[in-house]
Specification:
mainly alpha; 5 helices; about 70% helix; elongated
C-alpha cells in the first residue's frame, strides 16, 4: 500500500471565517471588560467627587463618563461591522456582478428605442391593471 503524500489542507474560507469569529469574540469580550471596569471606576469617582468636592475630581468623573460612552459606541460599531461582514451579499444584490456602486445610469440607443421600451412597459402596466386592479398594479397593496 502506498501512502498518500498529499496533506489535506483546510478550506481557506472556513479558516478566515473562524479567525474573524475569534477576533470578533475577543474584541467584544475586551470591550465588555472595559465597560465593566469603567462602571466601577465611575462609581468610585462619584464617591471621591462627593467626598472631596474638588473640581478636579468632577473633571476626572466627566472624562470617565465620556470614555465609557465612547467604548459603548465602539461596541455598537463592532456589531455593525460584524453584520456588514456576514451579510455582504444582501447589500450587493441590487447591482450587477463586479459593480460595487452605481452612480449614473446611461441609456445607449436612439429616442425611438427608448420610446418603444417605455411603451412596452406602459402596455404591461395597463394589462396588469385590467387583471388585478389599478391600485395593486400601482404598488398599493392595501386592497380590500
Amino acid at each position: 500500500m502506498e501512502q498518500s503524500s498529499e496533506k489535506l489542507s483546510p478550506d481557506p474560507n472556513k479558516v478566515r471565517k473562524l479567525q474573524e469569529q475569534s477576533d470578533y469574540d475577543y474584541s467584544r469580550e475586551t470591550l465588555y471588560d472595559i465597560l465593566q471596569n469603567g462602571r466601577e471606576a465611575i462609581n468610585e469617582a462619584i464617591e471621591v467627587a462627593r467626598s472631596t468636592e474638588h473640581p478636579r475630581a468632577y473633571e476626572v468623573l466627566s472624562k470617565l463618563l465620556k470614555d465609557v460612552g465612547d467604548v459603548t459606541d465602539k461596541l455598537m460599531d463592532l456589531n455593525k461591522k460584524r453584520r456588514d461582514i456576514e451579510e455582504p451579499a444582501k447589500q450587493q444584490n441590487a447591482l450587477p456582478p463586479g459593480v460595487n456602486t452605481m452612480t449614473n445610469n446611461v441609456f445607449v440607443g436612439s429616442t425611438s428605442d427608448l420610446q418603444r421600451l417605455i411603451g412596452a412597459e406602459l402596455n404591461t402596466l395597463r394589462l396588469l391593471e385590467k387583471e388585478i386592479g389599478p391600485s395593486v398594479a400601482a404598488g398599493n397593496l392595501d386592497v380590500e
